[in-house]
Amino acid sequence: MPDLAEFESFVVDRMSRTKLAGLSVALVEGDRVTYARGFGCRDVEKGLPATPRTLFGIGSVTKSFTCAALLVLAEEGRLSLDDPVEEYLPLEVRPMGEPIRLRHLMSHTSGIPALGYAEALIGHAQGRGDPYLAIGDVADLLAFLRDAGDWVHDPPGRRWFYLNEGYALLGEVVARVAGEPYADFVTRRILEPLGMDRTIFDAERFANDADAAVPYVGEEGGRHRPGRYLFGRILADGGLISCAEDMARYVAMYLAEGRAPGGGRVLSAESVRQMREPIAPSPLEEPDPHDWLRGRPASHYGLGLSVAPFFGRTLVGHSGSVGVATANMSFVPEAGLGAVVLANGSGYPLSNLCHMLLALRLGEDPFTLPALGRERALLAWEGEYETYRGTMRARVRSTGDTLTVALVHDKEEPAQPLMPLEVTPERARFAAPSLGRRLWVDFEEAGGRRQFVLERYLFRRTGPLAGPR
Fold it and tell me: Are 403 and 450 within 8 A, CB to CB?
């Protein structure tokens, strides 16, 4: 095992920066959990700590369970992944005149761009002012989709469009073919054989569990406002509740090519192979001539799992978010290694934590990974800056994939986001829009000082960010 002090310090720092309340993590090696612990609070008001058994919503990681359920049915000959969805549901959308097949929804290649139903439901439920949608079941969702044909962008199978609506339909297909509710089938055929007795879809069980994390809406100023899950309304596309301990068992099943701990099978090795077979490239990973790590290979989506290169190996997994909870599951089949991270809030990509833990266990430098390397490079430029003799002051913040600059007088002016062109810990170049043109903003280290040039001004760093981030 690597020295995990660096990892734990990193977790506490990122949670503090982004105001994540609580988080649980587990590292899996083969069929064993070799590291598990909680960080922060499952309940901030009561001061209750997170543990490896704390329940969190896992969001879209649920999609892998939905694909696994469909493959169980396919193995039994009760359906084929090439079946048109309209054989099971009255779906009226035919992109470019072609039927949408089950595997198209499973791989997000239906040709229908994201329609935002889940985003609207979740946002409205948390009081964000999002539109209210009268969707309570699949019949309502099919009515919502009736005019989606006008929004078709490509024929099925050509392009990746992440589609929550498609997975909600897949859950209904599972229910109709299995002859029982989707949640019951997933519980009976996947959760119970794996001993995942704390993984649930049920609102009452969650409410009565002594180790359930309060789902939090992050608010300005870092306040933690309790939110809620949409039990029943978000289901096959993101409705599962689980814990790090249980999710470790799920990861171990994939590392064992579909075998359960007791020796039986949840999935065949061929079904596991199908799930992680690259099908559609993610548009987030297209090569960019200005990318700070040029030539990185694209990541792909399979059936309910993403696939990407990882230190000469293969990284498989999925992230999830329902706003008030986030999750990441990642594993490296060649190394028999996996990790899960669950949190009761959003604001920091948990994939960074999973990938850092896996990299450390493999003996690799996690900061050579694009996301972690870029994050560290950007954070190196945060701080308070001044011009000559303090005539002007500026505050530079790292916000996700870029920096913002705000001039500070008696109060801080609106922050100007900068477009990154080149970012390293020693030098960075950004562009900012100005009167229809691009204004270069250059950060550099000179004479042991960090500084940046903004139009006619030279700002030098005077210290770290003051006050709360």
Answer: no
